[in-house]
Amino acid sequence: MKPVVAPFPAARFRRARKSAAMRALVRENALSVSDLIWPIFVRDGDNIEEPVASMPGVSRRSVDRIAQAAREAADLGIPAICLFPYIDASLKTADCAGAWDPDNLVNRAIRAIKDTVPEIAVMTDVALDPYNINGHDGFVVDGEIINDATVDALVKMTLAQAEAGADIIGPSDMMDGRIKAMRTALESEGHQNVLILSYAAKYASAFYGPFRDAVGATAALSGDKNTYQMDPANSNEALRLIERDLNEGADMVMIKPGMPYLDICRQVKDSFGAPTFAYQVSGEYAMIKAAAQNGWIDGERVMLESLMAFRRAGCDGVLTYFAMDVARAING
Ligand code: PBG
Predict the structure, then answer these.
(1) What's the confidence (pLDDT) of residue 218?
(2) Which residue among the candidates 202, 225, 269, 289 is catalytic per the annotation?
(3) Which of 47, 146, 248, 284 has the most other CB atoms within 10 Å of its CB?
(4) Domain range for residue 203?
(5) Residue by residue, what is the 3-state secondary structure of 299-328?
(6) Residue 275's pLDDT is what?
(7) Whole-prediction pTM value?
């Protein structure tokens, strides 16, 4: 497409900006509640809603409160919710067996949501880090995060979540070969209609800091995730990963973090046209919240602007901790 621009004064761009009505008519992108996936943290206990210090406005909820939150989200029109477990340090192990326990926190939360709010889509996270004594997404053997044995464990975790009723499986581990293994297992175990939203281009990012606090993985993590998550300097690799995961059976793909990687979002959408999501991660959320709390920025406007940026960059939707606030703002 070649934009045509008449010379001034035939072209005056300000004509189309002169009123709210004109701006609405020529607006190129829209943010709607149906673009949102709300990530929430689940913990043990009853009737508990405990604030996460590094993420103002975000809390960890017990399963009963998760079901209630899902009800509120569905009532606001949010199509999907994504579950992350906060696992007590004493329950983390080297074999990560909690990850595929059919009665673990996440699987109980899935069932509770499906019982009470069947219309909302439930997404899960597949990676070993919440259950792992050393905080890594895969098994650690002699200091190495080993790939293939981890994939076997991730498949067990996937099947347990699908069995509990998960609609969308979200592998965030960045092991090689996991999408194919998960898709094959889902097909052969009768879960043909379970979607995979692959965290295909997931960078080794410092923006995940507050999340690791929220899931209690900060203290546990030994070392960094640089041998499996992507180098922030790379973009060709992101396209190769996305293509690989689509070929292995991913239904949708994700770029993570979000706002610092909008160039990747645009390239992915233009290259493959697949359903493309971005994750506005914990550090992005915390920065906006902290600046707003200090009165340095208008929190609501920055929130909406940041999310519109994802739409402009080609994303179909965004995982954001702001989901409920955005939905309320849009619904008025
Ligand atoms: C773990 C996982 C992480 C996030 C989602 N799943 C953190 C990590 O990789 O260390 C980050 C989410 C956020 O920062 O909001 N596999």
Answers:
(1) 72
(2) 202
(3) 284
(4) 32-331
(5) HHHHHHHHHHHHHHCCCCEEEECCHHHHHH
(6) 98
(7) 0.97
